[in-house]
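step=encode ok
step=design start
structure_in=
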């Protein structure tokens, strides 16, 4: 395969005086060598080409790509075990690498194959690009995201739908949100301001506003989260009570607040993460940096609220619990309240073995500053 000769210039949005370059699937715009595939071809030939490092281009029907992906998944399953949590992770990594060599052409903001879905993100994310290539999984992700954005996703604790922007993580499980909602109902402290660190699609901030907080400062390193919520502010006056800040953790924050809310990733990163993986896996320095800065930005009588899980412990993918470690060794915060809630069983539709769900619990931690000795 040839190296890319050109690159698509970044697409930027202006939010609160910040010029933010959004994340989008990287378009291939150079000429590359591909193996053309249609439904009359033996899928094993295409799979062998993918395994040998070649790219395969779907040239007839969108469904041909779907069928080839199905065959590819069976091929990977035959090569790699897929039972334990770690084995499933390895399987997904291999499948991801091979499947991203399966390509589609986008021309004039539409897929050129027959009977393909209409995906509005092409016009929004690639407004000036007449023709380019994307991997089939990237197109599937854009299609799913477009459906979620248009139809909305109902969030029980809000009793209404959210419409997440492309590339923004949103909850598919709600036990931890219900814990937070229950705690907020009983919260008797000041409600002038709060911070939502890693705001994502904004659910925690919307819960804070629902219970009367006057101002929320929401930060995120994901530019799409900030851009998506910024666009939503023009349609919903309630959202105008959220100040959006693009940056890491407390970057750009100038105020101290009485409440800091943090729903961090629940698993330690097995590799360098990027994209939406950053919402799932945390780097080793995330919690030390968070707690060091949280002490600076939390009012003396304020509360630190962390929504977490014992997932790393029950799947044996992590070491010491990072919040327990901070309470034991940090010298900055002490536990005021700790609540756990069992998670619902895995859907019967899922084909993955998720036996650990029987032992998994979501967690609500309420921490307060340790007062200095007089």
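sequence_out=
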């Amino acid at each position: 395969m040839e190296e890319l000769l050109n690159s698509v210039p970044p697409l930027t949005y202006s939010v609160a005086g910040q010029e933010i370059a959004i994340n989008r699937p990287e378009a291939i715009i150079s000429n590359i060598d591909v193996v053309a595939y249609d439904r009359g071809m033996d899928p094993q030939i295409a799979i062998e080409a993918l395994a040998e490092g070649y790219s395969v281009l779907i040239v007839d029907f969108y469904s041909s790509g779907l069928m080839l992906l199905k065959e590819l998944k069976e091929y990977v399953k035959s090569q790699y075990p897929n039972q334990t949590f770690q084995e499933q992770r390895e399987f997904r990594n291999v499948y991801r690498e091979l499947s991203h060599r399966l390509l589609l052409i986008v021309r004039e903001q539409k897929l050129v194959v027959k009977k393909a879905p209409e995906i509005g993100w092409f016009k929004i994310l690639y407004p000036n690009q007449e023709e380019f290539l994307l991997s089939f999984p990237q197109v599937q992700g854009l299609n799913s995201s477009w459906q979620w954005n248009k139809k909305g996703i109902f969030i029980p604790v809000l009793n209404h739908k959210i419409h997440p922007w492309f590339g923004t993580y949103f909850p598919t499980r709600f036990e931890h949100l219900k814990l937070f909602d229950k705690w907020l109902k009983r919260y008797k402290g000041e409600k002038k301001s709060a911070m939502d660190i890693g705001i994502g699609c904004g659910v925690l901030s919307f819960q804070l506003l629902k219970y009367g907080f006057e101002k929320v400062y929401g930060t995120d390193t994901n530019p799409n989260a900030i851009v998506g919520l910024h666009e939503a502010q023009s349609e919903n006056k309630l959202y105008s009570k959220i100040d959006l800040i693009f940056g890491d953790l407390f970057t750009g924050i100038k105020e101290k607040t009485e409440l800091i809310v943090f729903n961090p990733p629940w698993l330690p990163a097995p590799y360098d993460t990027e994209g939406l993986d950053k919402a799932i896996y945390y780097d080793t320095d995330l919690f030390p940096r968070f707690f060091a800065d949280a002490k600076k930005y939390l009012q003396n009588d304020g509360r630190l609220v962390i929504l977490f899980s014992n997932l790393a412990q029950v799947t044996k993918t992590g070491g010491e619990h990072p919040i327990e470690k901070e309470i034991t060794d940090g010298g900055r915060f002490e536990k005021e309240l700790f609540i756990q809630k069992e998670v619902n069983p895995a859907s019967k539709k899922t084909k993955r073995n998720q036996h650990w769900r029987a032992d998994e619990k979501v967690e609500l931690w309420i921490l307060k500053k340790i007062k200095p000795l007089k």
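step=design ok
step=annotate ok -> The chain has two domains: 12-150, 152-369.
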